[in-house]
Amino acid sequence: MASQTQGIQQLLIAEKKAAEKVQEARKKKARRLKQAKDEATAEIERFRNERERAFREYESKHMGSMDTIKESIERETQARLELMSKSVGTAKEIVIKDLLTRVICDVQPKLHTNFKLA
Question: What GO MF terms are annotated (predicted)?
């Protein structure tokens, strides 16, 4: 019976050591996963920054800066407004006369053909 309890004791000790090793392996795996996640996050951030920088370079090279675009739009708008003002100034009198000739009618009062004097 003593050998039986001694065997059980050895099994319990071995089971305890195995459980400790499994626990340590789980902790090690969790640390490796966290480290891999941190490395992946850093790599993603580096890639994002590099692509953002490349896009900014492409944008400034091909499209110009936002100030340049804004200035060109404002110049174009001013030119169009001036052209419209000149056009209105030259055609204003002609349009008013045309409207007045179309609106003012020369009405000739006449009796209707079906009207009979009583």
Answer: ATP hydrolysis activity; proton-transporting ATPase activity, rotational mechanism
- What's the mean pLDDT in 71-88? 93
Query: How much is the average pLDDT of 50-54?
Result: 96
Closest among 31, 7, 36, 9 to 23, alpha carbons compared: 31
Domain ranges of the chain: 65-102
Burial per residue of 33-67, b for 16 or more beta-carbon CB atoms within 10 angstroms, e otherwise: eeeeeeeeeeeeeeeeeeeeeeeeeeeeeeeeeee
pTM score over 0.85: no
- Residues 16-29 pLDDT 10s: 999 999 999 999 99
CA distances from 69 to 57, 75, 97 (A): 16, 10, 42
